[in-house]
Amino acid sequence: FAVADVNVFGNFGPVSHDGDEQSLKLFGNDGGALQQVAATPGVTYEASAWAMNWTGNGTTDPFGEFGFLELGFFDGGGGLISASQVFVDPVDDGTNVYLAPQDGADVSDWTQLSITAVAPAGTATAQILLIHQLVGANTVPGGGTLAWDDASLTAVPVPAAVWLFGSGLLGL
Question: What pTM value is reported for the model?
């Protein structure tokens, strides 16, 4: 994220994944962030981000909701062609990526998430989406925080060996 301090409370909150004090804290309400980039059909893209279940004290009041990282592909008119998600939550039930409560004091409190997919035919843009959502009647806004850091959306380069192999086949 480009903003030096997304949190309006100054240095309140967890250390960022890389220690630079830049992270996105989604607290107490539905929220999210997204970025779209021009994309080419047939090219592989990777969306990645670091996530943390920040509780302030590392033991109580986890974020109590869920969040997800999404990699989506859109046509020229903005219509969704396909999307893949990685879900995170504070419940260790084997269904989603479990984020244990953390105190946010160390960069090792973060968990890396990533999705890799090939842009389908008709793709004009790729999008990374980070979501924090309150769910259920017993959800209390203002609980713990789902924090995101070092989000990126990149085209995965084709290894040089593939190009060499292809040119070798052409030579034959």
Answer: 0.78
State pLDDT tens for residues 83-139. Answer: 999 998 887 888 889 888 887 778 788 899 999 999 999 999 999 999 887 665 555
pLDDT at 63 over 90: no
**Cβ–Cβ < 8 Å for 73, 39:** yes
Q: How far apart are CA 129 and CA 68, in angstroms?
A: 8
Q: Could you give the CA distance from residue 41 to residue 25 in angstroms, rounded to a whole number?
A: 33
pLDDT digit string (tens) for 108-124?
Answer: 888 999 999 999 999 99
| Tokens representing residue 14 in the block | 């967890």
Q: Which amino acid is at 49?
A: A
Give the separation between CA 36 and CA 127, rounded to whole angstroms.
4
Concatenated DSSP letters of the chain = ---S--STTTT-SPPPTTSSS--EEEESS-EEEEEEEE--TT-EEEEEEEEEEE-SSSSS----SEEEEEEEEE-TTS-EEEEEEEEEES--SSSSEE--EE-S-SGGG-EEEEEEEEPPTT--EEEEEEEEE--STT--TTS-EEEEEEEEEEEPPPPHHHHHHHHHHHH-
CB 153 within 8 A of CB 47: yes
